[in-house]
Model the fold of this input.
Amino acid sequence: FPTHHHPHTIVIMSAGARAGLRPLVPLALARCFSTAGLHRTAARTPFGTGWVSEEEREMRLEGGKGVFGAFAADYNRLRPAYSDEMWQIILASARSSSRGHTLPATCSSGSSTASAPRLDDFHAADLGCGTGRGVVAMLERNTPYVTACEPDQGMLDVCQQSVQALFPTANTQYVRATAEETGLPSSSFDLVTCLQAWHWVDNTKGLAEVARILKPGGVFAVAWNDRDLRAQWINDFEALVHKYNPAYNYRMRQCDEYGAQLTESRELYLYGTLNLSNSLVLSSPNQLVQLTHTFSYVKNALSAEALDAFSQECLALAQYVAAQQHKATSSKRRETVAPADLPLAVPLVTRLYLLRKVTE
Done:
């Protein structure tokens, strides 16, 4: 999850789960894989640097587990979740009977811990669902029908295990497919989400597929978690990644480049862009190192030797920051705790895009 700058910015633009299915304003704006789209991405941006070739990826997908699926358990354990505030906004908007062109009141009033009302005919699909973070979040918020769509069988297996452990009676549907070709029925979903994955999708084909499966007036929500550059240590961390992977440019944000392309569809119009505060609390500095091993631009871009050297420097930085955070938040008469045993808080910003399918 790369970075961004200004949380709590809201731009409003207007234009002329618990079970198994269901021309515009220019912007300043993983895992939904299309092998053709991946090839172009790797050639165009640093985020694909070091990934296996298109042919190798295709063979691995046919074999069941893709690149992410090989470490799906670590991905599920370490990657950040999305805030309650974000889910309140998405679900309130998608469940709105008015299908209006503005954001719901929750956008300005902040998050709410109240459960959203359950609508028995409400259907949602999570594209590039990965290990099921988004699926579980929607089920927790009384979404009655959720379809988990993921091309990587290893990730999809973890998703199914996570959902069944928490919601054993849920009628959740699991579909192994890309965002470009879901195979899902047309005009069937009130909400489609894609979290931390749209940069792997062929934008033109993906938007056409989302428009096909959404009901008229249905909502498409796309989001990325980014590290917050307002923290100096985050800048130090980004510089460390760039040191070992010179192709990585942390000022080229996925949410900016790929979010801007969301305006290309005539069937979907963008009506909201938000930056929301978020955070990830790791139990130890070493977990930051483990987390970086789930980043394509680290694990798949570096040689074994370079990865080991990067990991050592990353751990030293994480331990220093954890010690500073502990010193700033603990009482004057604090116990001595080894830096390796301290928690580490990583500040994040979530970029959320809200689109709606044009009604006939």
In short: Residues 187 and 215 are 4 Å apart (CA to CA). The beta strands are 3-4, 10-12, 123-127, 145-149, 173-175, 189-195, 214-228, 268-282, 344-357. Residues 1-59, 97-115 have pLDDT under 50 and may be disordered.
